[in-house]
Amino acid sequence: MPFTDNWQLITGNRKPETFFNNFFEDEMNKRDFLKTTAVSAAVMAAPSFLKAENKNILGLDKSAEAGGKYVLPALGYPYDALEPHIDTKTMTLHHSKHHQSYVDGLNNATKKIAEAQDNSDFALIKHWERELSFHGGGHFLHSIFWNNMSPKQGSRSKNLESYINKSFGSFDRFKTYFAKASASVEGSGWGLLCYEPVADKLVILTAEKHGNLSQWISIPFLVVDVWEHAYYLKYQNKRGDYLDAFFNVINWGDVSEQFEKILSLDF
User: Fold this and answer.
1) pLDDT in the model for residue 56
2) Interatomic CA distance for residues 170 and 5, integer angstroms
3) Is the overall model pTM greater than 0.90, yes or no?
């Protein structure tokens, strides 16, 4: 249901800042929040509905073990499946090396923060919070990214098509905007198609690194990696050509499925 239709029912007509502050204070401590949210706090705000039982939304159910350890999710296709648009060598290095490094970094940061709490020693907490943000954003966004691509593109659902038209005017206008915004990211980062529940619409955001410039509360469900490691071996400095190629491998079936799941949640 649209967020705006249910806000008074959900919150008792409290102001948004009061509602969310009270919710997190009463329902979740910091460690529980970091463990159970579906996306990194550095990337997007984690709405309360993104609980552990809903982590299959956004394809994140294979990104952590039951005990809470983060793991590298397997690809749903071979490394050469996206040729000629995304080359085999890039896919191999990107998934097995770059993504794995974010998984390792996130597990290490999680461990160090737990040790800091156990020892009541927070001298390095600023550093480890940054590591948690950076590696968590990298892990979760990559997990979405792999599922967003496939050699078989599928088709967009009626709901997704309707929201694209409502939010951007047409699919062609969305495509141009998404590509231009993603190409404009300074240095390394991401292009993100997100659902923004407050106004019940889609928004296109960009993130430097894995989280800077993000809009909290918005939920990413189509993402494109514009770090150079995602395209440089094949496209060198031609980021625009890489983004054109990306549209040839978008798994619209997965994107539509994730969007339908998001709309089905009780906001």
Assistant:
1) 67
2) 25
3) no
